[in-house]
Amino acid sequence: MEEPEYADLTCTACGRTAEHELRHVGRLLATTTCTACGHVVEVVPRSMLTGYLHDLEHRVTSKPVRMARRARRDPLRFVRELPGALLRQPGKLLDELGTLIRGR
Amino acid sequence: MLLAAGTGSRTGHRTNKVFLPLAGRRVFVWTLDATAADPAIGPVVLVVRADEVEAARAVLAREAPRRDVRVVVGGASRHASEWAAVQELLPSIEQGEVDVVLIHDAARPLSGPGLFRDVAAAARQHGGAVPGRRQPGLLHRDGLAVRAGEAVGVQTPQGFTARELVAAYRAAADAGFEGSDTAASIERFAPQVRICNVPGSSTNIKITYAEDLFLAEALLARSSFDVRRLGPGAAGGS
Ligand SMILES: [Zn+2]
Asked: Does the keyword Transferase apply (chain B) (predicted)?
């Protein structure tokens, strides 16, 4: 995961306007944590993955549509067979996908 | 004018929420985008805190290089920030190049271009226009005070004829009055201006709650949206 950002938001659990820790995966928001009460909001993994692949479609310039289509049909296989040559930062992307899929 | 100076603490490492990344761009760049569809809208004045001017210019250069946006430093209150933006627009208003001023929360990235057009048209016709989720129609003057504010579904952009707005702000400055929003100053110092209520949009949310960020991101990226709320400390491992 990338470095978190912090912003003042209102918490639906404790009602306070407090600093929230925001974590992104790639360009997409993954979780928010209220630093006042610990309340966490996260995207349900499945839709996050779809969103992430949609995002990936725009970030990877070569053959993006075909790649993303394949990824949507079979995400895990897509990750295993991810064509490294297409990716400028293969380690980073695999890491991000791993975060999304692992243990969820 | 896009107001970004109003909210958030100046302390620490916190990011003003309008500078947060959302579906690949900063929140206020999405907000700015809604003004781009109509060439009749402009110039755009972005009001930020003094310590955010450089950051705002950098984001604009990167994410909206072709937009002509004037960045001005806001004041301690919303009223002062609006006045700072009005002063920036003053020469254009006095020359008749700007006939209506639209005031919008930069933390509302989902207003869409249609609402800007509706508000501008209604303000031009009636003098003032405020979007809300009530039925369209003219508000009663004495009802306005109750209706101003988020609790009753009043949204932005709010529009006012430029000359009346300037006159109201000058009168407010002379009287040492600071209204909670533009409508309050207009109501008090330009009572002849009729403020029309135009239908707001159900997705025109002001980023306030953490969940709003997820919703806004999903709507802007047009992806599916589903969040779950977990108990304290549950973020831990992932
Ligand atoms: Zn909380």
From this structure: yes
